[in-house]
Amino acid sequence: MDSETIQDVFRAVGLVRIRKMFGGHGVYHGEVMFALESEGELYLKVDGETVDRFRHLGSRPFAYTGRDGRTMTMSYWLMPESALDDPDEAAVLARFALEAAWRAKAAGTKKAAATKKRGKSSPRQKAEQSG
């Protein structure tokens, strides 16, 4: 799926930015990645609040084989085929994905602040301190 097609699917949510990654594309709105494209399929960000909606639609999680041969799944679920042809359905699902991405970002920010407050260093900070 090319960038123009991805832009068209998500037109209702406003300006999206598309970045190449891992042989596919990451789809961003502002600073959050809310969708990814891999092998021609679009996957939307889910969390505990939204995953059941996608499960109910017959969706499935994005999965890949890790270096150790194990199957790994991510918190992105396949966008139903019907949404690719229905801008209104695509907009609703994209908004669910954006909300999940914003919640994940907020949780990560809170976790980082708590770690900093406790005086613990993140792996990145440790690497910077030793180098």
Write the layout of secondary structure elements.
Blueprint: H1 3-9, E1 17-21, E2 24-29, E3 32-38, E4 41-45, H2 51-56, E5 61-65, E6 71-78, H3 81-85, H4 87-117, H5 123-130
Antiparallel strand pairs: 1-2, 2-3, 3-4, 4-6, 5-6
Domain TfoX N-terminal: 9-101
Biased composition (Basic residues): 113-123
Pfam family, one: TfoX_N
What key attributes describe this structure?
131 residues, alpha+beta, Yope Regulator, Chain: A, 6-stranded antiparallel β-sheet, 6 strands, 44% helix, globular
Beta-strand percent range: 25-35%
Q: Mean pLDDT, nearest integer?
A: 87
Using the alpha-carbon principal axes, give the shape.
globular
Put simply, the count of helices is: 5
Oligomeric state as shown: single chain
Query: Sheet bearing the most strands, described?
Result: 6 strands, antiparallel
Strand order, largest beta sheet: 1-2-3-4-6-5
How far is it from the N-terminal to the C-terminal residue, by CA? 41 Å
CATH topology descriptor: Yope Regulator, Chain: A
Low-confidence stretches: none
Number of self-contained structural domains: 1
**Helical/strand content category:** alpha+beta
Radius of gyration: 17 Å
CATH homologous superfamily annotation: YgaC/TfoX-N like chaperone
Helicity level: 40-55%
> What is the top-level CATH class?
Alpha Beta
